[in-house]
Amino acid sequence: MKKLFITLSIFAFILSGCNRRIPAGEFYDETFGWRITIPENFRGVSDRRAERSREHGLQLLENTHGVEFEDFTTTIFKFNVGQFNVFEALHEPFDPTIDGDFLENQKLVVELVYETFIDQMPGVVVDISMTTEQIDNLDFYVFKMRITYPNNVILNWRMHTRLFDKRSFAVSIIYKDEEIGQQMLDALRNSTFGR
Hints:
Layout: E1 2-3, H1 9-15, E2 25-29, E3 34-38, E4 43-44, H2 47-65, E5 69-70, E6 74-80, E7 86-93, H3 96-99, H4 102-120, E8 125-135, E9 138-148, E10 154-164, E11 167-175, H5 178-189
Parallel strand pairs: 1-5
Antiparallel strand pairs: 2-3, 4-6, 6-7, 7-11, 8-9, 9-10, 10-11
């Protein structure tokens, strides 16, 4: 079984459509001392819907790769605006002495996501890139994926990720609407961490 930090819900969301339903506005996560303001137009996603999404995503990965994956992630929050704009934060244990190099792990995750899209959605064009970005003076790896469907609908996925001690942290931003995508990016870029 592979242990990878995977944003599983991206597959279920894009192919079909938090631990608690929480309101938009000021949000604080104790694990990372993270303060972020969720735009008011976002709605919290229910536990049940988030869990179905994760299960479906895991199934798609396993169907594509013929390998059983374990999901060790904990959802910090999951919000959406309409069907095609999702804002999600996750974390999971990650010990480089056991799990290997963090960046190489993240690159493998993106490769698995790419291969799953190509396998599950023939005809899509997927462009991938990686950069780094500082948020609150902390370095994050940023993986970007642009998915163009045969009908010319375009979805964008960005995953900002970093290792905090022995905890992998990621924020996944999926958007069709550029303005809503910018709202999520601005919220993340203006957030702070208590390190």
